[in-house]
Amino acid sequence: MLRYTATPFLRLSSSSCAASLASRRTLPSLVSRSNIIIPNTKNKRLYSAVAATSPAVKVAKDISLETHTDTQRAAKETQEARSAAATTPLSKSSIIDEIDTSGTTALNAAYQENTGFGTRPIYMDMQATTPTDPRVLDTMLKFLTGLYGNPHSNTHSYGWETHKEVEDARDHVAKLIGANAKEIIFTSGATESNNMVIKGVSRFYKNTKKHIITTRTEHKCVLEAARAMINEGFEVTFLNVDEQGLINLKELEDAIRPDTCLVSVMAVNNEIGVIQPLKEIGNICKKKKVYFHTDAAQAYGKIKLDVNDMNIDLLSISSHKIYGPMGIGGLYVRRRPRVRLEPLLSGGGQERGLRSGTLAPPLVAGFGRAAKLMYDEFESDHEHIKRLSDKLVKGLLALDHTNLNGSADHRYPGCVNVSFAYVEGESLLMALRDIALSSGSACTSASLEPSYVLHALGRDDVLAHSSIRFGIGRFTTEKEVDYVIKAISERVQFLRNLSPLWEMVQEGIDLDSIEWSGH
Ligand SMILES: Cc1ncc(COP(=O)(O)O)c(C=O)c1O
Ligand code: FES
């Protein structure tokens, strides 16, 4: 393993081009190569992360830095050795005959030493978070080694160079939604952005406007922020959704009052993938002169969004949902006509005075690169995700007594939520430990409460309890989808065979006609 001096000039650069790879081969001896093959994107691109030091840098053996690519290669070797040694990651009771979850994607294998959680399952929890794109990491590394200036320092080149990178990132983030870079505020993520909007807008208008409108199927951070405003004397209308998960536009229009300061409706739901009619909502809000905010944590870069065309005044973004780093996100705040909000934080007045505090340039730059990749690869990502999603939906719905939750027509295909009647969701999740899944949002996954989103769609507790969310992303492979369909089909059948209810259904008994004795 090669070791490098931790110097400000250590750089990790990426290339998808054979020519530049070849040219790097001629670099002086301080070069390590490790190819990361990302197999499932349209063009089967070959990404290469190549670590190189400046020729002028001296190696000092005592101060060593292990590079990302070395770690990845070591992890891959460990993973391969481990999976070769393992007979099967499941117990004997497994009803799947062939299990091979090892090395299904390069990112799956790109991992560190044993953390005590055994062989890693197939990753299908893309709504909780997405794996970091290696190209994003490449962009971030130079900030963690050499480019350490404070982007707000205006008196020297350390500050200027970081500032430039931050502003480039801002351009990339803005471009994806048709915004001006000046309208993007960097935050720690969508939770903060949503809080900024709900608390900030209502507090700014508190003397004249005391009413907020949102929906029942929002992410918890929106619901809780809105509830917090009730304690500050505001009234909140939580709009219902229909059985498809969509709001009723007439209901929205009727709910708007002269003292309404904000309408907040999410773009893509994190549990069921349903897309709300953003353009229509924007038109109503514009007509009624009310600000329109959308939580686009699950939508940004994944569906087409244009803040001007859709009359969106505020839009929340999260970087870790688009293959970028965690702990960074953004808020679009319209400048013309100017949207007013009170900042949550007092301080140095960074980010147009709306978000004080020193920015985190490695995160900002990684976020910017992730946004640029979403822009550049929108079509190929979409085509890839749609194809795998169609296959997954078809495979799962081929099972009896299953149904897709949420609208089939207005949905982001990377989020598939299916109910498996007569199977208890938690038991199914337990039986699927070779697949990383969730029955709902990550922050509520520790509770066994049925999903409030599925409740809002009119699903009863039992069906809400037997629902599972599948997330497909840029790095999901067809092989993984095939595996998931097979595993789910066999294990649902297995669990149903153990269920007395299922036996009754097979005998043709109408379960609704039964009076169960309570206790
Ligand atoms: C719809 C939605 N809003 C907000 C968030 C919170 O985002 P972050 O993790 O960036 O705070 C999430 C993430 O789970 C989400 O799915
Ligand atoms: S914070 Fe991500 S699902 Fe709740």
Automatic annotation (TrEMBL):
Family the entry assigns: Belongs to the class-V pyridoxal-phosphate-dependent aminotransferase family. NifS/IscS subfamily.
UniProt function note: Catalyzes the removal of elemental sulfur from cysteine to produce alanine. It supplies the inorganic sulfur for iron-sulfur (Fe-S) clusters. Plays a role in both tRNA-processing and mitochondrial metabolism. Involved in the 2-thio-modification of both 5-carboxymethylaminomethyl-2-thiouridine in mitochondrial tRNAs and 5-methoxycarbonylmethyl-2-thiouridine (mcm5s2U) in cytoplasmic tRNAs.
Gene Ontology MF terms: cysteine desulfurase activity; iron-sulfur cluster binding; metal ion binding; pyridoxal phosphate binding
Enzyme Commission (EC) number: 2.8.1.7
Reaction catalysed by this enzyme: (sulfur carrier)-H + L-cysteine = (sulfur carrier)-SH + L-alanine
This protein's name: Cysteine desulfurase, mitochondrial
InterPro entries: Aminotrans_V_dom, Aminotrans_V_PyrdxlP_BS, Cys_deSase_IscS, PyrdxlP-dep_Trfase, PyrdxlP-dep_Trfase_major, PyrdxlP-dep_Trfase_small
Keywords (A to Z) from UniProt: Iron, Iron-sulfur, Metal-binding, Pyridoxal phosphate, Transferase
Cofactor(s) this protein requires: pyridoxal 5'-phosphate
BP terms from Gene Ontology: [2Fe-2S] cluster assembly; intracellular iron ion homeostasis; mitochondrial tRNA thio-modification; tRNA wobble position uridine thiolation
Annotated gene: NDAI0G04220
Enzyme category, top tier: transferase
Domain of life: Eukaryota
Top-level taxonomy: Eukaryota, Fungi, Dikarya, Ascomycota, Saccharomycotina
Entry's Gene Ontology cellular component terms: L-cysteine desulfurase complex; mitochondrion; nucleus
Domain Aminotransferase class V: start-end pairs: 122-484
